């Protein structure tokens, strides 16, 4: 379990968020508040609206109602790239890496907004451009080392195994130097060993890099071990919130997962 | 040759080791000596190739790197050529100024297709750029200033004492700009600009979620491609000394697309190889028919049809046998010799 910050400041606050696609209400009046430094999990059956919430936070969907505040700034209606630049990073569920690039370039492309040189500087590869490239390469190498990707640094991502691609996905999000990391099903389709590795990485990211983690995951063992707090969604509404212990003994949650006792 | 690096500066260097650097020197020396060894006709082919390289580099940055299809590249070449023609012909602006201005005019007008590209994707974008090409062609035909079908003369480069007019002088001039264009393209490709382009091509939603502004980099890609086209057009105008709208119709746009597809999409080397091949094919056919004239006297009458047929055949065969283009072949040969005599 993560070391909690002493001051427990509110970092991400979602209030009464609603989003519908045509007639289908994907999420209904969901409120979630994530504190700085914690590992917060969102769980629920398929189609509960978990990924939709992530898409709303990172600006890919625009929710019709409610508000999303990150460090006291409203995110609703802000463009995805601006939201990312504020420090909200995202690791996608279905691997969304840049297939034509190497692992290294994938990570470097997450740092575009941290480099200040312009088109002309890049065209001539002048001093400032080279300096920034080298500095950012240094930072990216730290991430590569952190997630043990040294051996595949210069391999094209399309040549990597599924498990490794998932790890590169996480690394790319980390390379952005985020304050909060949204991780969507990091261990789906992985074997036990890969799952344990991934759990270790997420704990390390949270503790050593002091990054808040919001996690969507179906693997209950992982969620219960890692999370400080858990929210349970079902059909777009929040049915429970609390510590892993509280949530797993909640009768509503048991009903959502296992069905009614008849 | 040893390839050890001790810092990131070395690892990101363009010319990685002594081996590459020595090849570069050999290449430069060859290019400097070449004009004294070749005939005027042979030099004129190389000049044509040099100009094509510049245009193809630009289009590859747009289509190959950023994944934005453009069927209107020839129009930007036309804009560059006519900007130079008008500036130099009517206002007497010197080459040094008219060349960059041609590029910039093309880049500015690229906003007309660049801004809609934020909304249009794939085929719709292709149609939009195609329409742009037709509009430019129409304007060139009907605008008083450009004198339509009669075309316009472009003055010589230079002042009083010194003019660039011989094939040899043009060779040095064009190759200089082709080299600069290649270097700039290489630099763009290995910095954040190139990474943003490729990120947009591969996964635009993920690119946005990584903090890359789609609108900024898409418009930039169109502008850079148009700038390259404009410079190529300007050089073409000065080189041909006479420009007519017919030079810049849809066939030119398609030739440029053929160059980058055949050469290899998303690589700088591919643009160069493709430009050389596509410009070279017609000349090779002429050379062949000349050589065979003794045995088959009727061949020269068929040359026009043959040109198109062989042209099409080469494109179809390359796409079938080597979808990655000439760069794919180059890479395989390189790997073969690197590992030789082992098979892995």
Question: Can you walk me through this structure?
Answer:
The complex is a heterodimer of chains A (262) and B (344). Chain A is α/β, with parallel strands linked by helices and 262 residues long. Chain A contains ten helices and ten strands. Chain A has helices at 50-57, 80-86, 103-109, 119-124, 127-146, 162-175, 192-208, 220-226, 244-248, 251-258; strands at 10-21, 24-35, 39-43, 65-70, 73-74, 88-91, 180-184, 212-216, 229-234, 237-242. In chain A, helix 7 (192-208) links the parallel strand 7 and strand 8 (212-216). In chain A, helix 3 (103-109) packs parallel to helix 6. The model of chain A has no long low-confidence stretch (mean pLDDT 91). By secondary structure, chain B is mostly helical. Chain B has one domain. Helices cover 71% and strands 3% of the residues of chain B. Chain B is built from 15 helices and four strands. Chain B has helices spanning 8-11, 18-33, 40-65, 73-90, 95-109, 111-114, 122-142, 167-190, 192-202, 204-209, 214-240, 250-263, 268-292, 303-321, 326-339, and strands at residues 152-153, 157-159, 162-164, 242-243. In chain B, the strands form two sheets. Chain B has a two-stranded antiparallel ribbon with strand order 1-4. In chain B, strands 2-3 form a two-stranded antiparallel sheet. In chain B, a hairpin with a 2-residue loop joins strand 2 and strand 3 (162-164). In chain B, helix 3 packs across helix 9 (192-202), helix 3 (40-65) packs antiparallel against helix 11 (214-240) and helix 3 (40-65) packs across helix 12 (250-263). The longest helix of chain B is centred in the middle third of the chain and has 27 residues, at 214-240. The mean pLDDT of chain B is 90. At the A-B interface, helix 2, helix 3, helix 4 and helix 5 of A face helix 1, helix 8, helix 9, helix 10 and helix 11 of B.
């Amino acid at each position: 379990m993560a070391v909690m910050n002493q001051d427990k400041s509110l970092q991400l606050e979602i209030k009464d968020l609603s989003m519908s696609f045509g007639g289908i209400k994907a999420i209904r009046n969901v409120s979630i508040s994530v504190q700085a430094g914690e590992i917060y999990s969102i769980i629920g059956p398929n189609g509960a609206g978990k990924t939709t919430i992530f898409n709303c936070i990172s600006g890919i969907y625009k929710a019709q109602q409610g508000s999303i505040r990150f460090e006291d700034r409203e995110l609703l209606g802000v463009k995805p790239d601006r939201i990312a630049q504020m420090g909200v990073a995202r690791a996608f569920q279905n691997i969304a890496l840049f297939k034509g690039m190497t692992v290294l370039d994938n990570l470097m492309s997450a740092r575009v907004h941290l480099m200040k040189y312009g088109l002309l500087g890049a065209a001539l590869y002048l001093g400032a451009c080279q300096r920034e490239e080298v500095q950012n390469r240094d930072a990216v190498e730290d991430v590569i080392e952190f997630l043990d990707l040294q051996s595949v640094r210069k391999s094209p991502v399309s040549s990597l195994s599924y498990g490794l691609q998932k790890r590169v996905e996480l690394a790319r999000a980390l390379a952005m130097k985020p304050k909060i990391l949204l991780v969507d099903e990091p261990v789906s389709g992985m074997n036990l060993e890969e799952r344990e590795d991934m759990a270790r990485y997420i704990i390390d990211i949270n503790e050593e890099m002091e990054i808040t983690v919001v996690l969507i995951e179906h693997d209950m063992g992982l969620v219960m071990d890692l999370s400080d707090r858990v929210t349970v969604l079902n059909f777009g509404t929040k049915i429970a919130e609390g510590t892993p212990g509280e949530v797993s003994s909640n009768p509503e949650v048991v009903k959502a997962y296992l069905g009614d006792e008849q | 040759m040893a390839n050890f690096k001790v810092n990131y500066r070395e690892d990101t260097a363009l010319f990685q080791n002594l081996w590459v650097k020595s090849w570069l020197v050999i290449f430069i020396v060859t290019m400097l000596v070449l004009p004294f060894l070749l005939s005027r006709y042979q030099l004129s082919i190389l000049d044509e190739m040099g100009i094509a390289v510049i245009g193809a580099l630009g289009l590859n940055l747009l289509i190959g790197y950023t994944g934005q299809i453009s069927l209107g590249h020839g129009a930007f070449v036309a804009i560059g050529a006519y900007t130079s023609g008008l500036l130099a012909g009517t206002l007497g602006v010197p080459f040094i100024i008219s060349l960059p201005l041609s590029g910039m005019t093309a880049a500015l007008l690229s906003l007309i297709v660049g801004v809609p590209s934020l909304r249009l994707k794939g085929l719709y974008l292709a149609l939009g750029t195609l329409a742009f090409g037709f509009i430019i062609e129409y304007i060139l035909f009907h605008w008083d200033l450009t004198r339509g079908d009669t075309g316009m003369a472009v003055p010589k480069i230079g002042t009083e004492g010194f003019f660039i007019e011989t094939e040899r002088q043009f060779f040095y001039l064009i190759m200089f700009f082709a080299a600069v264009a290649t270097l700039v393209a290489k630099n763009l490709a290995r910095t954040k600009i190139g990474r943003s382009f490729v990120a947009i091509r591969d996964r635009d939603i993920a690119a946005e979620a990584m903090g890359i502004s789609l609108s900024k980099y898409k418009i930039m890609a169109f502008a850079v491609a148009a700038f390259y086209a404009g410079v190529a057009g300007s050089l073409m105008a000065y080189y041909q000394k006479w420009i007519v709208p017919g030079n810049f119709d849809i066939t030119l746009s398609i030739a440029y697309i053929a160059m980058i597809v055949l050469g290899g999409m998303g690589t700088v080397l591919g643009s160069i190889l493709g430009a050389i091949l596509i410009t070279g094919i017609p000349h090779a056919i002429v050379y062949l028919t000349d050589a065979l004239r003794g045995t088959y006297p009727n061949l020269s009458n068929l040359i026009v049809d043959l040109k198109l047929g062989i042209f099409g055949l080469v494109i179809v065969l390359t796409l079938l046998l080597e979808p990655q283009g000439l760069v794919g072949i180059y890479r395989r040969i390189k790997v073969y010799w690197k590992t030789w005599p082992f098979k892995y």
